[in-house]
Design goal:
single chain; 391 residues; alpha/beta; UDP N-Acetylglucosamine Acyltransferase, domain 1; 2 domains; nine-stranded mixed beta sheet; eight-stranded parallel beta sheet
Length: 391
Amino acid sequence: MPRLKTLVLILAGGAGGRLELLTHSRAKPAVPFAGTHRLIDFPLSNCFNAQIDDVWISQQFNPVSLSDHLANGRPWDLDRTAGGLLVLHPRQGNEAGTGFQEGTGEALWSQAELIREFDPDALVVVSADAVYKLDYAALAEEHREAGKAVTMVTTEVDPDDADRYGVVQVDGERVTEYVYKPDEPKGNLISNEVFVFTPEPVLQVLDELVEEKGQDDLEDLGHFLLPRLTDAGEVRAHRFDGYWRDVGTIPAFHQAHMELVSGEPPIDLDDPDWPILTRAIANRASAQLLAGARIDAALVAPGAKVAGTVTRSVLGRGVIVEPGATVEDSVLLPGAVVRAGATVRNAIIDDHVEVRANVGEARGDIALVGLHATVEDDLPSGARFPQVEDD
């Protein structure tokens, strides 16, 4: 049987407001992760490992922060003369589907004509704010054999978090009910925002929804498209039991990093059989553990310099922890500096922040310090600095 013509569409245009200060001036998929990576590295690496050559990225919010990292697709072998990486931006024109998009449903419909022109056998649509490994090519083959319009990847989450997702009820592989972000979820089996679509029937339903509601009211895929296809009996479930973490909130982002520095990290970012690739940063030497440094259960990225105490924490590229400084249960993004005598506990410190005082000393909610700030006063548990108003 010939190999499927598979297209992966990564929806990377959302504002990512749940990550608060971390996405005030960068796209959510561009948020650093695990010291050396960015969130978009996970779907792109899944494409590389699955040997999928045609990958489109739909951008919108703060696109420059992501475009530099993409490097024309080179780190994931997508810098090709034919096919490879295609970055899609909001555009003006006379055709339907142009302009800025208000949700993932409109984001998909706005690319409908391009998708029809490309004519893939399978369209894999994914978000870019989760940490996981998944073979999209094998999933597409499974979808073809099933003969349904949609394959929806499902996984179980903490019952207290289920209301953040589309909650599904299944009978075997058949999805019998799909409810998007319900107030009172019936269970904790959710759609993890990885879908395989048979393009034409799905796009036809989107066209019908546009006629009924208008382009601006399509909202997210889960609001109208997926419930309608579920009611038509066209949605099947692929149960995913591997490691999957949505890191689209501050608590989830922090927790995922703490899992990486636990005794048994749940995901290997350097697995030779399924590596998570990223754009290499030039001129970054090995990390330096200087005299007096004490490190226990930590990830330390290239270019970091540690002379203080680091425990259960993740230090990004170029982070500096001076003598007498303490970092514990925290995530320091690239370029952060913790000055001598300062203590950072239970906190997330953004790019190029200089900490001269104690941050997040009290146990409890995570303290968050935003881009390029200088901290000279104590921050209580759960503090946000600087204060940034929503646009």
